[in-house]
Each structure stands twice: as structure tokens, then as C-alpha cells.
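Read as chain and fold; for instance:
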Amino acid sequence: VAVDWEPALADLPSAPARPRAPVALERDAPATIVYSSGTGGRPKGCVLTHGNYLSQLAALATLHPLEPGDAYL
């Protein structure tokens, strides 16, 4: 069943955004775990670090230079 997501979001309670202070992290600190069902067997998770994402950003920036105001997610 397909559902238009904008009306569904209107029903959610809104919470005020709280600004957070930046936190220094090491490059080898875990950033996320990506899970995949793979092609067989049990699902597996791969830990990606902040360094992984910084390296990806550096590689992508050579192809698509970033400018002030750009966002990377």
C-alpha cells in the first residue's frame, strides 16, 4: 500500500529543535552500522567509522567540488 508521506508527517507531534554543542570524535570512532541481508545466510553488519565518511567526502569532493552552503549527508 502506497501512502503519501506529507499528510502522515502532519499527524506527528512536533518537538522543538535543540541545538547541540559540537563533539570531537576520533576518525576510528564508529559512525554507523550498515546491515545487509546479503545473498544468503544471516544478515550481516558492517561498522563504518567517521574516517570512512571523511574519506568518502574527500573522494566525492574531487568529482563534485563543494561550495559554501552545500550539505553532505
